[in-house]
């Protein structure tokens, strides 16, 4: 797997450190650097990276708003938030904006690399603190349009359980002995029936409901 990464980080020392470290990693290439959200959007369009490593707090436009715009315009681009902000006020909006993963800057280097690979493969990679915030948030929120798990077919429930384990579509297909195309269809049906926006929300929903 060859991964093109765009780094969006306003602190020069942090950004250069990330560039230096990730350049040492096999199959990861840094295609661009952005100092704010507006630059991140412009470079995302120009460079079409596989993944954007996005800070939350940046000048001119923050990472959350940039994430929302990038995911709307180029939904195939993965976004992994990398920030020092672990409070619910930043975590929830970032996930709602479409972030595919959320890691803190004190993450171990090897874990960051694993998160990059995981997110690109379609897995949800959330820091433990972030997961705690999401679970707390979800436990206190009951959407009026939320559909019961009973609306899902047996196979859809099985796929949802696999999503909760962080598996990619390819891995789910292998586990359930079905085609990857069939998995994609089930995932689409699950998101539609449960009124969820992405796999991250689906995984959290599954955990919340005992799957």
TrEMBL record:
Subcellular location as annotated: Cytoplasm
Entry-annotated residues carrying 4-aspartylphosphate: 55
InterPro entries in the cross-refs: CheY-like_superfamily (IPR011006), NreC/VraR/RcsB-like_REC (IPR058245), Sig_transdc_resp-reg_C-effctor (IPR016032), Sig_transdc_resp-reg_receiver (IPR001789), Tscrpt_reg_LuxR_C (IPR000792), WalR-like (IPR039420)
Major place of residence: cytoplasm
CDD domains named in the record: LuxR_C_like (cd06170), REC_NarL-like (cd17535)
Gene Ontology BP, a term: regulation of DNA-templated transcription
Highest taxon, organism lineage: Bacteria
Alphabetic keyword roster: DNA-binding, Phosphoprotein, Transcription, Transcription regulation
GO CC field: cytoplasm
SUPFAM superfamilies: C-terminal effector domain of the bipartite response regulators (SSF46894), CheY-like (SSF52172)
Domain HTH luxR-type: 145-210
Response regulatory domain location: 4-120
GO molecular function, a single term: DNA binding
PROSITE patterns associated with the record: HTH_LUXR_1, HTH_LUXR_2, RESPONSE_REGULATORY
Annotated SMART domains: HTH_LUXR, REC
Descriptive protein name: DNA-binding response regulator
């Amino acid at each position: 797997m060859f991964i093109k990464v765009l780094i969006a980080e306003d602190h020069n020392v942090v950004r250069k450190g990330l560039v230096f470290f990730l350049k040492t990693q096999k199959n990861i290439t840094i295609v661009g650097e952005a100092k704010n959200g507006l630059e991140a959007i412009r470079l995302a369009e120009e460079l079409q990276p596989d993944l954007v490593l996005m800070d939350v707090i940046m000048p001119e436009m923050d990472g959350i708003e940039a994430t929302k715009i990038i995911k709307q315009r180029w939904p195939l681009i993965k976004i992994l938030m990398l920030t020092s902000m672990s409070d619910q006020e930043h975590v929830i909006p970032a996930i709602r904006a479409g972030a595919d993963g959320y890691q803190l800057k004190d993450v171990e280097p090897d874990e960051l690399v694993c998160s990059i690979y995981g997110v690109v493969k379609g897995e949800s990679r959330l820091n433990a603190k972030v997961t705690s915030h999401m679970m707390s948030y979800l436990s206190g929120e009951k959407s009026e349009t939320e559909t019961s798990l009973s609306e899902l077919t047996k196979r859809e429930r099985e796929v949802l359980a696999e999503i909760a384990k962080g598996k990619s579509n390819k891995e789910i297909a292998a586990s359930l002995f079905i085609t990857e195309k069939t998995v994609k269809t089930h995932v689409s049906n699950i998101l539609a029936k449960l009124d969820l926006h992405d796999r991250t929300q689906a995984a959290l929903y599954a955990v919340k409901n005992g799957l």
